[in-house]
Amino acid sequence: MAILELKAQHDALQKIATTRDPLKALAEFVWNALDADATEISVDFARNALGGLDGILIRDNGTGITRDRALADYENLGASWKRSSQRTRLNRVLHGKEGQGRLRFFSVAQRASWRSVYADSGALKKLSIEIQAASLHKSEVTQLELGEDDTHTGTCVELSPLKDTFDWLSSEEAVMDFTAIFAPYILQYPGVVLSYDGQVLDPSATITHTREFELRSIIGPTRTIRDLSIKVIEWRHSVGGRKIHLGGQSGVVLGSLPANVTAPGFEFSAYAYSPFFQEMADANLLELDGLNDQDYTKVIEHVRDVLSDHFRSRQAEKSGELIQELKNAGVYPYEGDPKDEVERRERQVVDIAIHAVTSYSRDFKRAENSLKRITLGLLREAVRHNPESMHNILHHVFNLPKNRQDEFSNLLQKTNLGNIISASTLISDRVVALQVLKSIVFDPKHRHSVKERGELDVLVQANTWIFGENFHITLAETGLSRIMQRVSEELSGKKSKKPSLRKPDGSIGRVDSFLGRVVPHQQQRHREFLLIELKRPSLKIGRKEADQLEDYVNAIRTQPDFYNTSTFWNFYLVTGDYDDAVRERITQKDRPEGILLEKPTHIVWVKTWSELIRECEARLHFIAEKLQIEVTTEEIEERIAQLKASIMREDPRMLNGSSSDTSESEPESLFDRASSISPARIPGGLAANRSE
Questions:
Q1: SS3 readout for 266-333
Q2: How does strand 224-235 pair with strand 602-608?
Q3: Where is this region: Disordered (predicted)?
Q4: CA nearest 23: which of 133, 154, 176, 160?
Q5: How far apart are CA 348 and CA 380, in angstroms?
Q6: What span, in angstroms and rounded, lies between the C-alpha atoms of 290 and 301?
Q7: In whole angstroms, what separates CA 195 from the centre of its chain?
Q8: DSSP 3-state assignment of 222?
């Protein structure tokens, strides 16, 4: 008997031998068997009377461990015979080269015992090796007599007694995780038979899809990582956790880490191979949690990006057949091809949501087509106008499992699809609204028939951004008395009852739309308001209309409700054209063109429809061009028709040909009509344009 003492301190060896993953400890002994050209390997568990695990046995039919190799390798850490070889005798890839794998038992058992039969000069011989967890630096090697069953080479490793129950090792989850580790190797060398707890592993029976990516070189912060290859295996069943397995060369796994990739509905294992990972394993770095090596981090980020792109494509592929079925049934919420880039992005997310719903919602599968059509329309509107609401919809409407809800939410967050769609929809709605407005005020077919009240003001209500991003609509088409009531409520917090406000000449004042918004200010009682008077596009104003606007300004500002308050007013008069007298007043030196009056507490603008639209187009042009938003003539006409139809349905008098103008003595608020019109029916209608 020989006592070999490893020339290293026990505490240093303990750090090398420690692993928190018992399955990885078992895997090291399987890799050693594969490196010994074993074609049959079994991992079995010795159980006590109560079914608990007492020990672990790893058997193989490999070439065994010769006495000379044991004397050399077990005495010197890092002196494994594998360091001088690139491949096994059967020309298979090698896993370990540092001679550290045999010490991994330390995390599982108190003792590791090898019984190995090997060939020496044509004759079979047998030896045993034993290492105690309490003295990792010592290996006891003993020559043994052959037994009756020792008819061929091979090794049996026994790990006992176990340090813990480790019942998880015999679970189905452990079997699948073990399969994931060795699947690439078994697929690469189909002659290898590996069994775990009596179950022969057959990865091909549970694989649904595989993909290999071409070799890449990654430029890291301090070096270039060459020959990085990535492989993805998609499983029919869960493999106990999505992981990225790292190896030095194809088929070999040196370490693993969580994938952290959003892939709804997929169970997968990813494999990344590069000599870089072999270097990391040789330095014992793949065992470290939170490894912050800059080059390593760069490579892992790249791997995860590749996987994310892969599963987005795979999700689209899987949903393709399902989407076609929904189209054939007439319940898919879109028709034809996407009309622009915005809708294409939108459809991608909707399709993924549809796939999630149809995969996990039994109620949806059993629903009638009419209900499916309504439900999918709800999904489309949610993605279009409020992608962030999808989590609640998937939970409350479709009762999806929480993990599937989270996956979809993470998909929107990590890919910024929610932000892209929200921004795209916002710009798209504005472009469409602007096109409709242009058609109304410029097209001769509409220009001479459009009305300020009931048509233009409703469109403006839904799109107050045309006057500036800080303005939101509150009330529309009301008398100045209603305006005073509204402003008084905002400033004082109580309803003010006052007689109808009259202009200096005694008549009751009216404006077409009143829009307001509180502007953030250091003084919380500060208020800023917007007051708009709309004129039909065919009208040309002069001094009379400009003076009338000043009357409105003075009537509002001189009310006692605003005495000693911090208030700023923005007044607009929008018209088709103005005469030279007005032009002279709004083109003064040293101030922007269009300002009629500018004081510390208020500013008064006069704008033509063409000026207003041109300014909006300039703001939207760049983004709209990048999004490739196009609005057809048919869509413009359809939205104008929807606008008019909405107004007429809400006001029966208009069906009888009555004028939309109401009595000056009893002004009517068109806000009551406009507020009941769905934003979806108003061109460019956005919820954000309503009063806060």
A1: CEEEEEEECHHHHHHHHCCCCCCCCCCCHHHHHHHHHHHHHHHHHHHHHHHHHHHHHHHHHHHHCCCC
A2: unpaired
A3: 651-692
A4: 176
A5: 11
A6: 14
A7: 39
A8: coil
Q: Which residues contact 652 (CB under 8 A, 6 or more apart)?
A: none
Q: In whole angstroms, give the CA distance from residue 80 to residue 282.
A: 12
Please tell me the distance from the alpha carbon of residue 128 to that of residue 139, in angstroms, as a whole number: 10
242/262 Cα distance (integer angstroms): 10
Query: 550 falls in which pLDDT band (50, 70, 90)?
Result: confident
| pLDDT tens figures, 33-92 | 999 999 999 999 999 888 889 999 999 999 999 998 888 877 766 555 555 677 888 889
Whole-number Å distance between alpha carbons of 133 and 162: 11
Beta strands in 577-638 (DSSP E): 577-578, 595-599, 602-608
N-to-C CA span, the chain? 88
**CA distances in angstroms from 692 to 483, 518, 561, 602, 687, listed in the order given:** 17, 8, 21, 22, 10
Instruction: Single out the residue of 639, 648, 684 nearest to residue 451, CA to CA.
Output: 648
How would residue 491 be classed by pLDDT, with cut points 50, 70 and 90? very low
Kindly state the greatest CA–CA separation across the chain: 125
Query: CA-to-CA distance for 87 and 35, rounded, in angstroms?
Result: 8
Count of beta carbons in the 10 Å neighbourhood of residue 114: 23
**Alpha-carbon span 461 to 15, nearest angstrom:** 70
Classify domain 2-170 at the CATH topology level. Heat Shock Protein 90 (3.30.565)
Q: In terms of pLDDT, which residue wins out, 629 or 346?
A: 346
Q: How confident is the model at residue 425 (pLDDT cuts 50, 70, 90)?
A: low
536 burial via Cβ count (<10 Å: 0-12, 13-18, 19+): buried
Q: What are the structural domain ranges in the chain?
A: 2-170, 177-312, 330-415, 426-689
d(CA 72, CA 94): 19
Cα 675 to Cα 660: distance, rounded to the nearest angstrom: 16
d(CA 352, CA 336): 18
| pLDDT at residue number 10 | 57
pTM exceeding 0.70: no
**Segment 477-486 mean pLDDT:** 54
Cα Rg for the chain, rounded, in angstroms? 38
SS (H, E, C) 410-461: HHHHHHCHHHHHHHHHHHHHHHHHHHHHHHHHHCHHHHCCCCHHHHHHHHHH
* Pair 227, 302: CB distance under 8 Å: no
Query: Residue 187, class by beta-carbon neighbours within 10 Å (0-12 exposed, 13-18 middle, 19+ buried)?
Result: middle
Q: How far, in Å, are 10, 25, 98 from residue 282 at the CA level? A: 19, 16, 7
341, amino acid identity: E
